Amino acid sequence: NATTKKAKTLVSNVHNTYQTKYRNIAEDVIKGKYGNGDTRKAKILKKGYDYNYVQALVNAMLSEQQKWGY
User: Fold this and answer.
1) pLDDT (tens digit, 0 to 9) for every residue of the chain, 70 residues total?
2) For labelling, which of 14, 35, 39, 50 has a CA lying 20 to 30 Å from the CA of 6?
C-alpha cells in the first residue's frame, strides 16, 4: 500500500539523517574539534548528542582504521 511505502521511506530517511549527523560528530571528535575528556563530553552533550553513542562510534571508526592500517 502507498501509505506504508511512504512511511517506510520516511523512517529510512530519518534513520539515514541520524546516522549522518552522528558520523559527522564522530569524525570531528577524531579530528580533535571537541577536545578530550570532560571537555569533549560537555561539548557533545551541550549540542544535544548522546555522548556514549558518539564515543562508541568513534571507537568503532578508530578500530576500523587500525584494522586496515589507515
Assistant:
1) 777 776 666 666 656 666 888 999 999 999 999 999 999 999 999 999 999 999 999 999 998 877 666 5
2) 50
Dihedral sign from CA coordinates of 60, 64, 66, 70 = negative
Cα–Cα distance, 47 to 59 (Å, whole number): 20
Dihedral over Cα of 61, 62, 63, 69: its sign: positive
Q: What share of the chain is helix, strand, coil (3-state, %, to 5)?
A: 80, 0, 20
Query: Can you state the angle between helices 51-68 and 2-30, rounded to 10 degrees?
Result: 70
Residue 35: closest CA among 58, 63, 53: 58
